[in-house]
Amino acid sequence: MVKINGSSMEMAGITLAQYLSTTDYSVSRIAVEKNGMIVPKSQYETTVLCDGDELEIVSFVGGG
């Protein structure tokens, strides 16, 4: 199980990029923290999610 923004999900074994492709997140407008460390966008394709990982995904929104 991987905890993503506080919810446990069966996502172990896939890459971060694969997970994000199943969501409505705009990859250019998010930041991802895995186990307390920011994941650079260049590593989304190679970052494999493992049992016990905790992700926090934050979306940036514009406004004035």
Q: Tell me the radius of gyration.
A: 11 Å
Query: Secondary-structure element sequence?
Result: EEHEEE
Tally of helical runs? 1
CA-based shape: globular
CATH superfamily: Beta-grasp domain
**What is the strand tally?**
5
Which spans have pLDDT < 50 for at least 5 consecutive residues? none
Strand content: 25-35%
**Euclidean distance between termini CA atoms:** 39 Å
Q: What is the fold named in CATH at topology level?
A: Ubiquitin-like (UB roll)
CATH class: Alpha Beta
Largest sheet: 5 strands, mixed
Overall mean pLDDT: 95
Q: Order of strands across the biggest sheet?
A: 2-1-5-3-4
Helix content: under 10%
How does CATH name the architecture?
Roll
Structural class: mainly beta
Question: In the residues, how many domains can be counted?
Answer: 1
Describe this entry's structure for a reader.
This protein is 8% helix and 31% strand. The chain is mostly beta strands and 64 residues long. The chain has one domain: Ubiquitin-like (UB roll) (Roll), CATH 3.10.20. It has a five-stranded mixed sheet, with no helix packed on it. β3 and β4 (37-39) form a beta hairpin. It is globular, with a radius of gyration of 11 Å. The N and C termini lie far apart (39 Å).
Summarize the structure.
The chain is mainly beta and 64 residues long.
Notable traits:
single chain, 64 residues, mainly beta, Ubiquitin-like (UB roll), 31% strand
Question: Would you spell out the secondary-structure blueprint of this structure?
Answer:
Layout: E1 2-4, E2 7-9, H1 16-20, E3 30-34, E4 37-39, E5 54-59
Parallel strand pairs: 1-5
Antiparallel strand pairs: 1-2, 3-4, 3-5
